[in-house]
Specification:
The complex is a heterotrimer. Helix content of chain A is about 75%, strand content about 0%. By secondary structure, chain A is mainly alpha-helical. Chain A has a single domain (about 10-45, about 60-275), classed as Orthogonal Bundle (MetI-like fold), CATH 1.10.3720.10. By secondary structure, chain B is of the alpha/beta class. Chain B contains 11 helices and 12 strands. Classes of the chains: A mainly alpha, B alpha/beta, C mainly alpha. Chains in contact: A-C, B-C.
Chain lengths: ~280, ~350, ~325
């Protein structure tokens, strides 16, 4: 539709004018790409122990030095980013997909499905995220697979509630009533009208979901939940670095900085999205 | 205009010029408008929405947001220029000397405080010596004055518990609490239904004649002007295009814009099947203000000269003036006097 | 209002029960779960006779009921991994965690509101930009990094506070509490700023100015109360984040609190202790959420009147 594409074009134009948001987007994107290309960016792997270079200072060979077991910090950061970012992105996408489906069913069809889904979500939402993760890990065993699903499950209610509320809001509009009266099929109404209108808040929610997942994932890594020792993860790296704060603070500083930069860039981008999608102005 | 006798001038606005900064550039909302309000008089500011009427009075009250700027002009209230008052002086003037009521009453009342506390607060903001109890009884009297039958109960209620007409009465009561000399009414009846509108206008008229305060009434509706105002300034695109007494305007509108607005008044004797009249063409875009007359793009009598310069003010009667090239060139307006 | 408060407080019970139910399922069906060894009978109390009356056996449901009965009525959390009563260990740790969390929430409210209001009032000016950047940075840095930076500054460079302390004196809680507070203040100030900016654009703010109220009254009495309504409704999520922060801080500074106990019992597979800790954390969190709900109703007259049970209806008492 012509008007629709105009709206999105207008939105992109507004977004591009927001320098902080554009910078945030590109910083996060380049971090993601750097982590994805880790094997090509560094010749060191993340697990080989070399006792001759324990706590080595940054040098030409190891540009950020080595950690307490003589592993290259730069490659551990890159490979750690792979783990952290994958967990954050996958869990948030999963939560968005499941939450979207649940919210649509609840908000569009109402009735008994709504009752059931809403109560289930309420219960899930009343369990704090970290408790869900810790108990999942404690019961299902330590491995990052389950940890990611627990993180996703904990984020589902927020997505579902948002989609449900928006869907119910849109369903109250007269043009949906008109479409229904004309005999337009459910799937078409959902695709054409409901999804279109839900998209903006959903995108914003998605960016804040990523920052939340990043924070929780790194905190869990720091606490040693869900990540097994040789695997680098930014939070886990910070935990390793914590033991040597006074003598070799580089590791904890760098891993903290990596987390902070990611969180800040995504939230700047999210703020820009929110401003650009704001119908006022 | 302003040198006439009669009653003393209360508010004298001269050359007020206000602009907004937006992404599309500077919007020149008000371009050097001048008018005056005398003691006890009701002055109407009439024009389409977006014409700069509201912005002009918000500027006088110092209520503009940060994106707007008063570029030039003065507004003398009893001889003091209120555009150049200090913050504290302005605050003590607002509400006590000049009060204001707004278009959408329910959104102009603080939703989380009771009516009573908002009224008592207003009184005590201007006079700390009045006790809470005394302020409460003053407020109840004022609510009774504006036609609210059960003031004690209303005082305990929140704005969302009131209907639109009731909220407007409350807002009027708040505005009149400190017996102001001037009441600025910014389209106070536009958001209300017709019956309530009539009640509120009658109420304002009664209150004004009883208290002798002056009123500056902003509207796009000439029907209200006819009922309420003594004198009128017609505003188009941030310029005043015609000024005069209500009779002058109604019986001898000289500017094509005024004539067009007058035609918009629904008439009880108009043919039933005729479509509702409207001024053709788009309203003035204040970002790219055309050189020359602001109304010329929609004017049925436009001439070449209209796009060159803004027309000068032509005095038609002692207190009646209009800015139009037709008058300057001595041409008779084809539609003149048709509303008479 | 009292009725509403009582209603809300009673809501703690079903929420806590349902959360425990989910966690109970997850931990019960584990291989070698210590919860399964929990006795159902033999408390010598009302529940015993009730079970006997219904002829209840020893199964998952009766275990769950017994557990809830014990913790809610008798405040008995069973035995920890090393065989001593869990309640004794918990008491001391609950105190520490509450101290950290409470001081964190307190400082967050006391410092976050003025910072947010100040930034909103000076929107887009230099001071607002500074506050904006600082709070963005502080809210993005994970708690363990804040803790690391603070310990570096206070203990290593300034040498004001020793690094290793015993948590018997309140002074020892300074750094941990400060760490929690910093993240909370930053997020909270940002929230207050956003809502405050929105509120300051509302028409009634203009009307208040037109009535002659001074700017302090407009901002601090009217705008702040309105802006706090949406802020308070989001307070629950923020408190949950602070609790997570408490967990990290307890770990970083080795504070003997609920979080560190829970982490320790996860690695020692002491399921009863995990369940006990989660139950208490749920109670704390639900209680703060409900406190936020009550505060919300207190600030928002619509909610208050809705639950007050008073049906105040608009009757047109206008005369023309």
């Amino acid at each position: 539709m012509n008007t629709t594409s105009n709206i999105w074009f207008d939105f992109l134009r507004k977004l591009c004018k927001n320098r902080a948001a554009v910078a945030g987007f590109f910083v996060f994107l380049s971090i993601c790409i750097a982590c994805a290309l880790a094997p090509y960016l560094t010749k060191w792997d993340y697990f080989s122990i070399d006792t001759t270079i324990v706590h080595a200072a940054p040098s030409r060979e190891h540009i950020l030095g080595a950690d307490n077991l003589g592993r290259d910090i730069f490659s551990r950061l890159l490979y750690g980013g792979r783990v952290t970012l994958r967990i954050a992105l996958v869990s948030t996408s999963l939560a968005a997909a499941v939450g979207c489906a649940a919210g649509l069913i609840a908000g569009y069809f109402r009735g008994r499905a709504d009752f059931f889904i809403s109560h289930l979500l309420d219960m899930l939402a009343s369990i704090p995220v970290f408790m869900l993760i810790i108990v999942t890990e404690a019961s299902l065993g330590w491995g990052r697979g389950y940890f990611m699903y627990a993180l996703a499950a904990a984020a589902v209610p927020q997505f579902a509630m948002l989609v449900r509320a928006s869907a119910m809001n849109i369903m109250g509009c007269t043009y949906i009533e008109a479409a229904r009266a004309l005999g337009v099929r459910h799937d078409k109404i959902i695709r054409r009208h409901v999804l279109h209108n839900i998209a903006p808040p959903l995108i914003i929610r998605f960016t804040s979901g990523i920052t939340e997942a990043l924070v929780i994932c790194t905190i869990m890594g720091y606490l040693g939940v869900g990540i097994n020792p040789p695997t680098p993860e930014w939070g886990a790296l910070a935990y390793t670095g914590k033991a040597f704060t006074r003598s070799h603070p580089l590791l904890i500083i760098l891993s903290s900085a990596a987390i902070a930069v990611c969180v800040i860039s995504v939230s700047l981008f999210g703020d820009g999205l929110r401003d650009a999608l704001d119908p006022r102005e | 205009m302003r040198e006439d006798g009669g009653s003393e001038i209360l508010l004298d606005v001269m050359g007020l010029d206000v602009s907004f900064q937006t992404r599309r550039g500077d919007v020149r909302a008000v371009n050097g408008i001048s008018y005056c309000v005398r003691r006890g008089e009701a002055h109407g500011l009439v024009g389409e929405s977006g014409g700069g009427k509201s912005v002009g009075v918000h500027a006088i009250m110092g209520l503009l947001g940060t994106s707007s700027r008063v570029n030039a002009g003065s507004a003398l209230f009893e001889g003091r220029d209120i555009l150049r008052l200090k913050k504290g002086e302005l605050a003590s003037l607002r509400g006590r000397e000049i009060s204001m009521i707004f278009q959408n009453p329910s959104s102009y009342l603080d939703p989380v405080f009771t009516i009573g506390s908002q009224m008592i607060e207003t009184i005590r903001a201007h006079d700390r010596s009045i006790s809470k109890g005394a302020a409460r009884s003053l407020s109840e009297d004022m609510l009774w004055e504006v036609g609210i039958r059960d003031p004690e109960r209303r005082m305990r209620q929140y704005p969302f518990e009131l209907s639109g007409g009731m909220s407007q009465r409350v807002m009027i009561a708040i505005a009149l609490l400190c017996k102001p000399k001037l009441l600025i009414a910014d389209e106070p009846t536009t958001a209300l239904d017709v019956t309530t509108q009539a009640q509120i206008i009658r109420l304002l008229k009664n209150l004004q004649s009883r208290s002798g305060m002056a009123m500056l009434y902003i509207t796009h509706n000439f029907g209200i002007v006819a009922e309420l105002c003594d004198r009128v300034s017609v505003i188009c695109g941030g310029y005043i295009v015609e000024q005069g007494s209500t009779d002058d305007i109604f019986y001898g509108a000289a500017h094509p814009y005024t004539q067009a607005l007058l035609k918009l008044i629904p008439r009880i004797d108009s043919p039933k099947n005729e479509p509702a009249p409207s001024i053709g063409g788009p309203p003035v875009d204040s970002v790219s203000l055309p050189k020359g007359c602001v109304f010329r793009k929609r004017c049925p009598f436009r001439m070449d000269i209209c796009s060159r310069d803004f027309p000068p003010r032509i005095n038609l009667a002692p207190y009646h003036s209009a800015n139009c090239w037709l008058l300057e060139l001595g041409k008779e307006l084809p539609g003149d006097g048709q509303n008479g | 209002m009292t009725k509403y408060i009582i209603k809300r407080i009673l809501m703690i019970v079903p929420i806590v029960l349902s959360v425990i139910f989910v966690l109970f399922i997850m931990l019960y069906f584990l291989a070698g779960s210590s919860i399964r060894q929990m006795p159902v009978f033999g408390g010598g109390d009302a529940l015993d006779s009730a079970f006997a009356f219904f002829n209840a056996g020893d199964n998952f449901i009766t275990k769950y009921i017994r557990y809830c009965y014990n913790i809610l009525i008798k405040l008995d959390f069973g035995k920890g991994g090393i065989g001593i009563g869990l309640m004794r260990t918990l008491k001391y740790r609950i105190r520490n965690t509450l101290l950290l969390l409470g001081s964190g929430i307190g400082t967050m409210l006391v410092a976050g509101i003025p910072a947010g209001v100040y930034a909103a009032v000076h929107k887009n000016r230099f001071s607002d930009r500074i506050i904006n950047v600082v709070t963005l940075l502080l809210s993005a840095i994970p708690n363990f990094s804040t803790a690391f930076l603070l310990s570096l500054v206070f203990a290593v460079y300034l040498r004001i506070i020793p690094v290793a302390v015993s948590y018997t004196s309140p002074g020892a809680f300074f750094l941990p509490a400060l760490t929690i507070a910093i993240g909370g203040i930053a997020s909270f100030a940002r929230m207050v700023r956003t809502c405050m900016i929105e509120t300051l654009e509302q028409p009634y703010i203009i009307a208040l100015r037109s009535k002659g109220l001074n700017e302090t009254g407009v901002v601090y009495t009217h705008a702040l109360k309105n802006a706090l309504v949406p802020v308070v409704s989001d307070l629950g999520g923020l408190v949950s984040r602070l609790l997570l922060g408490t967990l990290v801080v307890e770990h970083f500074f080795s504070v003997p609190g609920l979080g560190s106990l829970m982490m320790a019992s996860v690695s020692s597979r002491d399921h009863n202790t995990i369940l006990g800790c989660t139950a208490i954390l749920t109670v704390i969190l639900t209680a703060t959420n409900i406190a936020a709900d009550i505060l919300y109703a207190f600030l928002n007259p619509r909610i208050r009147l809705m639950y007050a049970g008073k049906k105040r209806r608009e009757t047109d008492g206008e005369r023309s």
